[in-house]
Hints:
By secondary structure, this protein is mainly α. It contains 11 helices and no strands. The protein has helices spanning 2-15, 18-39, 47-57, 59-79, 83-88, 93-126, 133-153, 155-164, 168-187, 197-202, 209-235. Helix 2 crosses helix 3 and helix 4 (59-79) runs antiparallel to helix 6 (93-126). The two termini are 29 Å apart.
Amino acid sequence: MKILSFIYCEALKVLRSSVFWIVVVAFATMPIMLGLVTYINSVDAGWEPYLTDLLGSITALLVIGFSFTACWVFGREYVDNTISELLVKPVSKLYVVLSKFIVIFLWDVLLAFFMFAVVFIMGILIGLNGVNGLLIMNSFLIFMTTSLLIMIVSTISALLANISKGYLAPIGLAFLIVIISNVVAQAGVSAYFPWTIPALFISKVPLGFTSIAILAITGITGFVGTVAWWRFAEQQ
């Protein structure tokens, strides 16, 4: 029950911040703009190409967005100078880190669900043809699974936020990753770069054992590294 109080406190920090609403607006704006620009004048446009194109295009936004949520939750403790208070309190640092990661996960799930809802509503407003419940559900599940994969690799941003004691470095890394991802995709080695593997999944490319292992190692490194960093900082 004790960890629930930590989660509650972390959730309040997010909900009471203007950053939460700024991120929500950003996640709504991009699919709206892409949908309007790409399909508003299309004749006889269907749901399948619409969902495939739009959901695939906004994967880069998920990489940046989820990296930001991860680094902001941890980085704000350093920017607001509250990290020292957390470290001196007689509470489990593991609970603190776990509660932060749980809130990051819930925030990201909410953003992913919200973004898909925006994409779906936009499709209705544009007047796409051939709406199919099975297609919508299948696209939703693939999109949410892709989002989960991106959440896993975003733990690296949380680790970097702690190492750099802020969120500017992780944000810079997120934009650099997007640039590198384009180069990696052109080189045909997307299956071996953690941040491009989710894009393969949403494109319905089967993931091999190597890709899955890379995702797992990246996620574990970010999570375990963050826990270890807080343990190290506590002893300083």
